[in-house]
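Late entry, evening session. Most of the bench is empty. Finally got around to the prediction I had been postponing all week. Sequence below, unchanged from the version circulated by S.P.
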Amino acid sequence: MIFGLVGLVGAAGWWSYARKFDDPVAKGAHAETDEAKERAAQAPVPNLALITSPGLWPFYIGYFALPYCQYLFLTWLPQYLSHYRHIPLLQASTLSALPFIAAFLAVNFAGWAMDWMAAAGWTRGGLHRKLFIGLGAAIYAVTTLIAATTESNAVAVIMIIIANAGLSFYVIPFWTTCTDIAPNQTGTLSGVMNFFGIVGATLSPYGTGVIAQATGAFVAPLVLAVVIMLVGATTMIIFFRYRPLSELVAEATAASAAAKA
């Protein structure tokens, strides 16, 4: 309740501050760049198309995996350390904070690295985004499997810390992709994307608890999370076409019309 109240106070303060500003618009020399002109020319698409266009489904499937895996740690990590690894509660509480400190550092590094790649021109096919999705998924999968099967508490904790860094690599490209492909509908697209993520976040704590109780261990829930992460990342990397939102929707509409004809 205390942290919920802090969140409400923070939200109210941010709203009071942010409502004074208009949406950012390129000005001066920035407005004359090819990128700015291309973004300004992109017409919004119907909101319904954000859900019905098959071209966006790999994007949503990929993001579904992130909160599923993230909320497993958020909800069950202290229980995992104290009851399964038999680490004293006070020590487990301290250790539970370390993965999120690592995530904070990793997420800032990933943002810097993607900016560097974009400036270097390594953006073809969304390479600067998909590379970190694949890297993050691989880091998470390997370290989580080690944490699930090792007998060493120290190794398990270290692997979980690294796994959270992998999740940070994984998450940022999705949010920046919303800005890349839908500059005039970033908020709407990210909201739909986050809806699918929250579905994963809702299923994860419950499903993890049920499986852990049935098996008497956390191995199966962690392995399931790895499978979901790898499926989500593979679907996003292989099947999502990194193109403007209007083109993705137009292609889907044309394909549907052709199929009906």
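Two things to note before I forget:
Residues 53-260 form a domain with the Growth Hormone; Chain: A; fold (CATH 1.20.1250.20).
The CA atoms of residues 58 and 236 lie 5 Å apart.
Will write this up properly tomorrow.
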